[in-house]
Design goal:
Layout: H1 6-32, H2 36-61
Helix pairs in contact: 1-2
Length: about 60
């Protein structure tokens, strides 16, 4: 993989941070949800955010 430019690296870090924030918030919402369907929706969304963050982080390790 070619080297990332400073702008690409900055954008990637911003996206990773945004997905981490989403993951944390969605996990909190899931822990507070009473309705099982809502809890499941937040849990799945949190997992999706974490998966995306991990995929984005793989660009830093390449």
């Amino acid at each position: 993989m070619p080297n990332l430019s400073q702008t690409e690296l900055q954008n990637l870090r911003h996206l990773i941070g945004a997905h981490e924030t989403s993951y944390q918030k969605l996990n909190t919402y899931a822990s507070q949800a009473v309705d099982p369907q809502i809890k499941q929706m937040f849990t799945k969304s949190a997992q999706d955010a974490l998966n995306t963050k991990q995929k984005l982080m793989s660009f830093l390790n390449s």
